[in-house]
Amino acid sequence: MATSKQPVTVPTGASVDDFLAAVPDARRRADAERLCGILREVTGEPAVMWGPSIVGFGSYRYTYESGRTGDWPLAGFSPRKQQLVLYLVGGFAERHASVLARLGPHKTGKGCLYLKRLDDVDESSLRELIDRTVRVHNGVDRASERRG
After folding, report:
1. What does the pLDDT look like over 15-27, one tens digit per residue?
2. Largest CA distance in the chain
């Protein structure tokens, strides 16, 4: 009997404000609240809880080579215990290396940007990465060609 696995990370009706207020570390909570405002402003989308721990903004539909499809936030973040995790476009480290070079201390994963403290990074570079992510997901991937 074949079953289809349902995605766990989907938009929920949970309160973003309640989620952020419950972040135990005061500094991480303040960074998360500030980051939430930045993402809201740059994406032009409201904050929505995706699953129990991701704050997402907007959404896009993806399709893997296998044909599997799903929905994911245009951009999002999670205030983890050790760092802030931003969910951006896959391959952004290669696409936007020059912006990452200006960002400040960070680590990257396939589609994740890891920041210890928001005050340690260049906010204009962070805003540019978020904007470029939204452009890519909306099919307007010209920023990397123009700005490098």
Report:
1. 999 999 999 999 9
2. 52
